[in-house]
Amino acid sequence: METINPQPGQSKAMVWFYVLTRLVFTSLLLLTSIYCLLAYLPDMYYAFIQAPFQPWLRWLIRFHPYVHAALLSLLGISLVLEKRRGEPGRVAWMFLVAQGAFAIYFFVAHPFSRIGNNSLSYIWSLVLLIPALLLGFVDSLAGWKQASWESWHPPAGWKFGWLLMVSAAIGVAYPGLGFLRCWQLGKSFPFSSPALQAWLAAVTAHVLLAAVVLSLFNLAENAATRFSNAVKVRFLFNNLITAFLLDRVLQNVILASLPFDSLTSQIYSAVLAMTLVMLGSSLRLRLKQARTMAATSQEDSARHRLGAVLALVLMAAAYIVPALIGVVDWNFLLEKLWALLLWASAFGLVIAFCRVRAKNLYPVRALIAVVFLAPLTYHFLFTLPTTMSTSSAPIREMEDAMARHSYFDVSFQVVRSTLTLHEKKACDDLCQFLSTQTNLPPTANVPSVDVELVKSLTPAAGRKPNIFVFVIDSLRPDYLSPYNPDVRFTPEIGKFAAESAVMLNAFTRYAGTTLSEPAIWAGAMLLHKHYIQPFHPVNGLEKLLDADGYQRFVSVDTVLQVLLRPTPDLVRLDENVRTWTQEDFCSTARDAEAKISRLHDRQRPLFLFAQPQNVHGITLGRLGADRQPKKSYPRRFHPILASEIERLDGCFGEFTHYLQSAGLYDNSIIVLTSDHGDAFGEFGHKGHALDLHPSVLRVPLIIHLPPAMRKQYVSNPDRIAFNIDITPTLYYLLGHRPIINDERFGVPLFTATAAEAAAYQRSNYLVVSSYGAVYGLLGDNGRKLFIANVVEGTNDYFDLVKDPGAVVNRANDQLVATDEELTRTYVQQIANLYHFKYHSPTFADWLVH
Fold this sequence. Notes:
Number of strands: 14
Low-confidence stretches: 1-9, 292-298
Radius of gyration: 30 Å
Structural class: alpha/beta
Number of helices: 31
Shape: globular
Mean pLDDT: 85
Helix content: 40-55%
Largest sheet: 7 strands, mixed
């Protein structure tokens, strides 16, 4: 474990063996630590741990003890081979014994295969970092003692010119390449004066951040000269600065994207930053010792040619990698990681191939001035204007331009998160209140409450219709012909809609699967918790199926497996699906046809529920060659999305034909909807992680009724409707009425009279992100949208008639004050419904759970 100078008999291959064994072992520890951290976060646990979409991750966790033991053995061999005075160091043996004990425990307990959403997951995330931190520390200490410090460059300044030019070039090129990708996809974007000003401001922010970082490292160079062992002191100072910057990036960029912002996040970020710096410094010392003068000498011309080639490769990667990431992202997290890697690679190229060392040190006073004035300049240019009156039109217009620019320039998002003096504006009363009501942890005490949509639920009389509910995850209505006449690739859904009720103004109440799907089953708004347990007392749809004796055919996905009670009436669909991204409408429909034909009890009504993942962003990013677009589509439609919807449309038509041939169609209620939409590259927006953009909130909602039933009821296709209205509508159609008129519940979309429907109308409806403290109000029958975004610290107000894409923020102080109070009222009413009262969790509560 103790690092020594390469001896004459020590080959480069042996040195690289030592390096690689450390890299792979610590990489396993870091990856497992991050896995445990995601399990600790309630929304991440259900979105990624309970529903892993990467087969290699499932394999790694399943065989983790074997992988850990194998890599530990390789590391042990490298430690034994590293002898000092003929014997391995005592610390090395202690390290191996401790890790061996862990390896035995992993084989016996398999802790990561059964990891839960609790504080133990967080403890594991920290515990797994300790061996990596210890390994890096001891290696660094040994390398420190054995290093040939006299061969290191003496302290000298870093030139600002080349490195500031590189930062400016990234600020210009990154969004420029994004614009080019969108132009090739046929997406338009306005190059207005505010847009160009926003681009220039982003370039300025890039230069300011680079100036701060360079000044910090130049200060370290200056400070080191005041000590006799200047090279060693500089090495220490550089590590401290790197740890500080890395901790800031981890907190403000990486963990904030989850979102994870608390004392526990700060602790994890600090420990991870120290671990990475220790490992990096130890590897740097080892590789520095392994270098030879022959290996580093090159002709300047050859170096320049190699540097030019690598620069072109990096530019190509800057164009290609974001396109490969595409929609397979979470709140821009992957693109932010790529932007950080791009920065590191670009600066590394400049340092390696350009003369960036100054002959003289820069004045300390000038460097300190840059360190303080650059963030202040950023604050006055970017942060201070947002604290002014929201009625200032020029400021609001510029803010909107900056927000739109950020979509194309994820590098700018990283810069803003790193440079901002306060990552969020001061958290006011509403912000604090919404934070206490969001992502309630397992420690939150929620009593079991019965939520009843009707006063008394008794079995319905007479023959009951079959019920088929298809919730196509992330399906947008503007890609379906009943909602968009320009669509030519959904003929079967078009035929189905022609004999059904099409709700033209339909939305979701929850932007994200993990709360939207449970809310559809509940038929009501829910506490922002993953999940209320037991869920049956609030599961209105399951209660209906129990009361009316429905035989169930359900695709039990990763959410429903937590929500539904085991029952002999349940026939599972998609039992052979290995990951949730494989839940395909076509295979689900074939499975349903086979099982209905064999297992359906004709004396009982039939209920089917499925939530296929055909058009989810992650699924689209993983489609094989057989499901790639086979033809071209109009440029306003994304080819792979349109192609997959056309395929789904064909399978939907085949299933409705099956129902007709089986004599089920004319006695069935069939619902086609979505849990939420998806921005899918909408200008200025991406995905649906922490966004309440209209493209995320709008959903299709098409309901087919049996002909005899259709004549009995009225509906208004233009009224605002929500997917949580499905369950109350089924109650009403089966004769369970009246539906309790409560703004926290869904409403029947079919009623005996128009006057009865009017009684359920509201002026405003609460909409919520499933993953963070982002709340909104849809008002004026879906024409107005207010958003209180606690994560970003912003308030937005959009007129969806004048501005359907929610681009221009029309918020002013009066509107914000009114809608903030109304938002608080609605959220409090939900808490009252479930008898939830927030109490600050104690450390004992956290530890017990």
